[in-house]
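Final report, Chapter 2: Outcomes

The project's central promise was a pipeline that accepts a single protein chain and returns its three-dimensional structure in a standardized token representation, suitable for archiving and comparison. That pipeline is now operational. To close this chapter, we reproduce one record exactly as it appears in the project archive, with the input sequence first and the structure output second.
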Amino acid sequence: MLVDEGRDVLGRAECLELMRSVRLGRVVFTWRALPAVWPTAFVLDGRSVVFRVAAGSPVEAALRDETVVAFQTDAIEPGGERGWSVTTVGRVRAVRDPAETARLDALFPPRSPDAASERYLRLDCDRLTGTRFSASPRATATPAPLAP
């Protein structure tokens, strides 16, 4: 389905596949009544985004259980002409089960020694949207002249 010129809507399966192809994303949340964006490494675990936060950090404080957040990830293809963006919105939950934490540890790079207090947060991809876009201008478009 075409949304607008150069932008196509992605289906759920393609969104999940694209999310699996990258390791960095952005958690979007509210911090002190203002929007905040926090870049983070993540894994797609089944149909959930999982990422780590430092225990006691401002980010962890803002992302309490059941807080509604958005998570966005994207990629630009080599040459910079085409790309995609996927966003999911849902409630974040802390991973508390030691067995699940150990399983997730195997999916992430090793923790640094000073990061022992990190914990995992999980966001189910219930509301998932994505687009594929082109940065190329239309062939008929004429660039505006530069101002003197």
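Archive annotation: The domain at 2-134 is CATH 2.30.110.10 (Pnp Oxidase; Chain A).
This record, like all others produced under the grant, will remain available to the consortium after the project formally closes.
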